[in-house]
Amino acid sequence: xKNNKITCLEYGILIYFIIRSMSLGISIxxxxxxxxxxxxLSPLIGMIIGLIPxxxxxxxxxxxxxxxxxxxxxYLFGKKIGKILTIIILITITFLVNxxxxxxxxxxxxxxxxxxxxxxxxxxxxxxxxxxxxxKINILTRTANILFYISIIIFFTCVIGLADNxxxxxxxxxxxxxxxxxxxxxxxxxxxxxxxxxxxxxxxKNQIKNNxxxxxxxxxxxxxxxxxxxxxxxxxxxVFGIDLATIYEFPDFxxxxxxxxxxxxxxxxxxxxxxxxxxxxxxxxxxxxxxKQAFKHVVKIKNENIFISIFIIIICFISSNHIFKNNTIxxxxxxxxxxxxxxxxxxxxxxxxxxxxxxxxxx
Length: 363
Hints:
Blueprint: H1 8-20, H2 23-33, H3 42-49, H4 51-62, H5 69-77, H6 79-111, H7 118-133, H8 137-162, H9 180-194, H10 214-240, H11 242-245, H12 251-255, H13 268-272, H14 274-299, H15 306-320, H16 327-361
């Protein structure tokens, strides 16, 4: 990986996709069901709270810039404890990618291919993920670079097309039940959108070209992605109102049907929704690359082996189709339990590494 450098722009684009990746069917639902009519405040509150894990992320990125996260853990804790911590992270990210993969399959099966078994859908995506997993990280960043510009065009098309449908009266009353509910959904936003940024510690800082300006790119894409999520939930609530928004399984997808195309395109919302598929594709691919590198680090494999990628994806392929018995169980888990797991595993562990690195500097 060290011979395949990426640019600051490509690194920032990965941040953009990670923050947006769990919007569809996960974080948007938490804004609505937890934040209520004030749910549009959640991304803004979460963006501010998220500066804490972002600060930790930047500090860990700058610590021993030649090393990736697994090597940094070994350096700080020793190989035995480091291997245990790496295995815990490996299990956490494996569970995370299963949940995200399940969400992708659920969306595709229910909104696009509702007469097709999710197994066939999983197989098609699985082949794509096997290909990306066998490539270097710079191949994924180049792919993300192309998809980013397409996604931006689609996003602004949606913003302009929905402008006339928004009604500010649907956002009233303001803070009817106080700040508690938007604050809780803001914390959920941190769990869903900010904490997964620690995946990018897989890439050593010295693998990034001209990294003296990296912090600027991190902040710009962090800000733009969070504002983008604010725009989405603002439109969902201002167009539908809280009562109607809670009915839909994917209200952000249904929202796109309000965009008028004078009948030129059939199901134009399906074309516009590809921006979320891009988000999920990049996030899942990054997770698989992370899992592969973690697995290779634990079992001490240095050479690339396609069978490792195939094995990892087959395991996730099978488990993602059986992780939840039905959508109701899955939705409740994602809404009320998943954020706690994310905080425990993707905040406490990096925090421990950060504290250890801070004490290491002072000794």
